[in-house]
Design a protein that fits this description.
The protein is of the alpha+beta class. The chain contains eleven helices and five strands. It is elongated.
């Protein structure tokens, strides 16, 4: 169940319990301080028991959430009309408007509009039978329209804010995980993802761009950045979606490959090596050294250490591949 639906379910539970409590409160207040007819007592009792029944059904069958929401809202609106005739008590009128507002907040805008339209039609039908004073009827009609408009507008503003907040959080999360220059994972994200990977046949490739300091010193850091981006792009084109690729240092990269053996790990390392030196970058002959290690346990730190030792051997020759 997603977060929004889970929140809606909890709010519906709360709404049903409040409805039950309000039904009891109205029953007591009318019984003690006002007049309570048998008809009103019956309606309040039905509303109380249906609210409790709604809670029990949701507990057993959460999939009926939307149906229960619509039914209970229609029931409350109808009962408030029948109990109070809307105009005889400000308390019941407040109950009506709070019900309408909560239909927008707890469910969604479409359901809220449906309940508002239903209330509008019910009010017109009631007018045709009871013949309210014209001023009272028009006051209710316009207040219902205005209240519905502002409820819809308020929920829209809240949803827009929530959408923007989620986008901002996702952006912040992405920035925390990604390398700002190349767009691939950074060191921290790599270790987090690698530790959560449970595949037993894994291989680590560590890659270092040969003579990168010389490239920066000779051509400038702007060109060095282009080299880093292009190397990243070429390596990425050879990887699968499930492979984890990260930049862990200035010119150092690491790849975690799942479901590999030593033969396929060596093949992939040589393929990456050939891809980089196959074509010049910014008219520069760029080469890389690759060190790799095949492992079956879950200790990524030891695997990285072994791969780094293999990379050290490869860097002694440059433009070479060493796999342990």
């Amino acid at each position: 169940m997603n977060v929004k639906r889970d929140l809606s379910l909890k709010l519906t539970y709360l709404g049903l319990l409040l409805t039950a409590a309000i039904s009891v409160l109205f029953f007591i207040v009318k019984k003690i301080f006002l007049s309570l007819s048998f008809y009103e007592a019956l309606l309040l009792s039905i509303l109380f028991f249906s609210s409790i029944a709604g809670c029990l059904i949701l507990y057993k069958k959460p999939k009926y959430l939307k149906i229960i929401q619509i039914v209970i809202y229609i029931e409350i609106i109808v009962f408030v009309f029948l109990i109070s005739y809307l105009l005889k008590s400000p308390l019941e009128l407040l109950w009506f408007y709070l019900t309408l507002l909560s239909s927008f907040i707890i469910t969604d805008k479409k359901t809220g509009l449906f309940i508002a339209v239903f209330s509008f039609i019910l009010l017109i039908l009631y007018q045709s039978v009871m013949h309210l004073a014209l001023n009272d009827f028009l006051t209710l009609i316009f207040s219902l329209i205005i209240f519905t408009f502002f409820s819809y507008l308020s929920v829209t503003v809240i949803e827009t804010y929530e959408t923007q907040r989620k986008r901002y959080e996702e952006k912040i999360k992405e920035m925390a995980q990604k390398d700002f220059l190349t767009g691939i994972y950074n060191r921290r994200a790599f270790f987090h993802l690698a530790k959560s990977c449970l595949n037993q046949n894994r291989g680590v490739l560590m890659i270092d761009i040969d003579y990168f300091k010389k490239i920066n010193d000779t051509y400038g850091h702007a060109v060095g950045d282009v080299v880093l981006k292009e190397v990243t792009k070429r390596i990425q084109s050879l990887l699968r979606d499930e492979d984890i690729f990260a930049r862990i240092g200035g010119e150092e990269f690491v790849i975690l490959l799942n479901s590999v053996n030593k033969e396929s790990l060596i093949k992939k390392a040589k393929e990456i090596n050939e891809k980089i030196k196959n074509e010049k970058i910014e008219n520069i002959n760029v080469t890389i050294s690759v060190g790799g290690y095949l492992f079956k346990d879950k200790n990524i730190e030891i695997a990285m250490k072994k791969a780094d030792e293999a990379l050290y051997k490869a860097k002694e020759k440059r433009d070479s591949v060493v796999i342990f």
